Amino acid sequence: MKNPAYIVGAFEHPTRKAETKSTAQLHAEVAYGALQDAGLTAADIDGYFCAGDAPGMGGLSMIDYMGLTKLRHYDTTESGGSSYVIHVGHAVEAIIAGKCNVALITLAGRPRAEGMQTGTAVRSAGVGVPDESFELPYGRTIATMHANVAMRHMYEFGTTSEQLAWVKVAASHHAQHNPHAMLPKVVTVEDVVNSPMVADPLHRLDCCVISDGGGALIVARPEIAKSLNRPKVGVKGWGEAYKHQNAGGIDLTYSATKFSGPMAFNKAGVKPADIKYASIYDSFTISVVVQIEDLGFCEKGQGGKFVADGNLISGVGKLPFNTDGGGLCNNHPSNRGGMTKVIEAVRQARGEAHPAVQVKNADLVLANGKGGNLGSRHGCGTVILERE
């Protein structure tokens, strides 16, 4: 089967601070935006996908709130920030199985308006969570868990803070062209390494922004996609995988992308060298380095060298990435960046990215998402998209 389903609608909410909007309203607004982009209506949606960012009873609440009265299938798979990349694959599988014809995927949240300390505060997921009593006494935070990975990568492979900084530099070069980006100023390697230390060896500019907003995607059956007056972006390959603590017997230098990436490449029948553009989940600079290695764009341990000297900058490097500025500079809505990774990959495949960062002949693109803590339990999703 060539491309069993197509992304026909994509929309990113323009707000970065939603003080006057509820999370449910943001979900509805991004859904409407994606429907407008596709040229469809709510009555055309018969499949709905969301995750833990949805308020109330999650999918059940949002289905009712948005008036999705024609549903035959819904899926609330929760894998943190990678959920929405994984949902694209689940939507394709549901379409293949005949469970739905047109699937809507939404993400929304307002952590910035709520003043949430996302990466640096010790937070509990609730009473009864099995890992909490073993890890919280040691002050586990999202930032420190990613810092563990960065420190180990430096120890094992000689990766440097300056190399990690190049990820931020590349993102900032792209963000300057995005009118909605939270950090549109171009930064240097020196700016990054001289910014305050958050969790050794990660500096403040190694960390993503905290933003409100959201996004939505619509995945449709081939016959429906062909009937719409929109560029055809097929879902050519997809994969999902998970990684856990394994009672402490864990190698910190790789992510679950080591498994989700090959799944997607095998389905698509392509290899890393064929990819023209990549959206890589960038909650921290180290996240990008590890995922690039695990996706096969370079050998394990060579990620620091690969990202250095502008190699991720569109029009300059071998692997243009996150041309909207990514989570490091543009936005990280609801602390879950997977949705925006797919949206920018769709823009690139359609040729709709900003002209200053649009990749030439971006007919084969990739989006990769990570949810959870890179240094402990997390899930990763990979999708490969093809412009026809």
Walk me through this protein's architecture.
This protein is of the alpha/beta class. The protein has a single domain, classed as 3-Layer(aba) Sandwich (Peroxisomal Thiolase, Chain A, domain 1), CATH 3.40.47. Helix content is 33%, strand content 18%. It has 13 helices and eleven strands. It has helices at 23-38, 59-65, 83-96, 132-135, 142-157, 161-175, 189-193, 222-227, 257-268, 285-294, 303-307, 326-329, 338-350, and strands at residues 6-12, 47-49, 73-75, 102-109, 197-199, 202-203, 213-220, 233-243, 277-280, 364-372, 378-387. Strands 3-2-4-7-1-8-11-10-9 form a nine-stranded mixed β-sheet, with helices on both faces. A two-stranded antiparallel ribbon has the order 5-6. Helix 6 packs across helix 10 (285-294). It is globular, with a radius of gyration of 19 Å. The two termini are 14 Å apart. The model has no long low-confidence stretch (mean pLDDT 95).
Radius of gyration: 19 Å
SS-based class:
alpha/beta
* Low-pLDDT stretches: none
What is the CATH topology classification name?
Peroxisomal Thiolase, Chain A, domain 1
The CATH architecture category equals 3-Layer(aba) Sandwich
Largest sheet: 9 strands, mixed
Report the CATH superfamily.
Answer: Thiolase/Chalcone synthase
The number of distinct helices, counting runs of at least 4 residues, comes to 13
Overall pLDDT level? 95
Oligomer: single chain
Percent range for β-strand residues: 15-25%
Number of domains: 1
CATH class: Alpha Beta
Strand order of the largest sheet: 3-2-4-7-1-8-11-10-9
How many E strands? 11
Helix residue percentage: 25-40%
| Backbone shape | globular
Order of helices and strands: EHEHEHEHHHHEEEHEHEHHHHEE
